Amino acid sequence: MQNLLVTGGCGYIGSHTALLLLEKGYTVYIIDSNCNSNPFVINKLKKIIMKKDKQLAKNLIFFKGDLRKKKDIERIFEYSKHNNKIIEAVVHLAGFKSVNESMKYPLMYWDSNLIGTINLLKVMQKYLCYNLIFSSSATIYSCLENKLIDENFPIKPINPYGNTKRCIETLLEDIYKSEKAKWKIINLRYFNPIGAHHSGDIGEDPNGIPNNLFPLILQVASSKLRELKIFGNNWDTRDGTCIRDYIHILDLANAHIAAFEYLSKTKSQIINFNIGTGKGTSVLELINTFKNVNKIKLPYSFTSRREGDQKYIVADNSRALSTLNWKPLKSLEDMCRDGWKWQLKNPNGYIDN
Ligand code: UD1
Q1: Which residues line ligand 1 (CB under 6 A)?
Q2: Edge-to-edge strand ranges of the sheet holding 60-64
Q3: 241: Cβ–Cβ under 8 A, 6 or more apart, which residues?
Q4: What tens digit of pLDDT does each residue of 143-175 get?
Q5: Closest ligand 1 atom to the C-alpha of 159?
Q6: Among 54, 75, 197, 274, which residue's Cβ finds the most Cβ atoms within 10 Å?
Q7: How much of the chain exceeds pLDDT 90, in percent?
Q8: Longest dimension (CA), the chain
Q9: What is the DSSP string of 267-298?
């Protein structure tokens, strides 16, 4: 397989994944509505890839389109067919991803995430494309213990965003069962991706004030926000703050390449993989690493716990390590250094460029 479609390819995870696929010589089609991303990412990707090999930049083909419109998806599959570079696999990342927003606008989340996926699957079937890597999330797990989470942990999301992810996994299971000989489906359950490409040219560009910890750290470090509010210092953890499994965005992107290459050479199946490092880091540890690596101040104070937060969410990634030709290579220091480089080079995200 040589030609892939990346839905949501202008987003944070999509852009890094598309870049690595291009570097490997694959033809990458991107479909993105840009409702939550910037089309300028495409130029950035071309710029980075051209430094490596001018020819490779020609393998990036962007279509602005919305998965909620089946015609938009058909257009890109039709184009790929006419150009004799038919899409053979899809990395499906498009969708809304904010927990808070999903609680305010559940219909918007169900519409975009679920209807978008249903349309995509219909078009894939029409064009006989049965290879799919889906961006799922650790948010679907229910976990209250201090235990590494493996893929068999109970699934019990607690917000509409998580519900859409779980529901899509269920849908994919049904699709797989209906044509077991054809479908190859991988659900990648992401833990907490942070950082940026080491060039500092692509990174996370949230709309407005972010909710997640790392983009907030970047905004405090660059004095856009006065201080970071840490949600609770009385958790039952080593320093009283919550523990997460932060993974460098390039390690996470690389997991998609490994998943795709695994799909290419295995039999039809549906399989879930946790994509994390297996190492837990507390909020304070992340802040201190960021401060030390980048030699910068990061004012913070403690506030009450955030509703729905959990104290410890860390992956048991052994299935991914043993099955995929993949392992996370980058350290917490790399995540902090590369994320800060992106922020310094692009203080206002992609808008300035
Ligand atoms: C959150 C979502 C999760 C989603 C993920 C996407 C919740 C409850 N969970 O996960 O469903 O998949 O984002 O990346 O919203 N923190 C602070 N102060 C802040 C922000 C965060 O102390 O201003 C702490 C949180 O308590 C948490 C850690 O930082 O312990 C990481 O938070 P965040 O980046 O929002 O990720 P998750 O909570 O893991």
Answers
A1: 99, 137, 139, 162, 192, 211-213, 216, 229-231, 242, 244, 283, 306, 308-309, 313
A2: 60-64, 27-32, 3-7, 89-92, 131-137, 184-190, 269-275
A3: 230, 232, 233, 235, 282, 283, 284
A4: 777 899 999 999 999 999 999 999 999 999 999
A5: 11
A6: 274
A7: 94
A8: 60
A9: -SEEEEEEES-S--EEHHHHHHHHHHHHT---
Copy the structure tokens of residue 322: 């043993």
Atom 28 of ligand 1 has which residue's CA nearest to it?
213
Over the range 50-60, which residues count as b (16 or more CB within 10 Å of their CB) and which as e? Answer: eeeeeebbebb
Tokens of 247: 């993974």
Cα of 117 vs centre of ligand 1, distance in Å, is 25
Domains along the sequence of the chain with CATH? 3-345 (3.40.50.720)
Alpha-carbon distance of 68 to 57, in angstroms, equals 28
Catalytic residues: 161
How far apart are the C-alpha atoms of 245 and 219, rounded to whole Å? 21
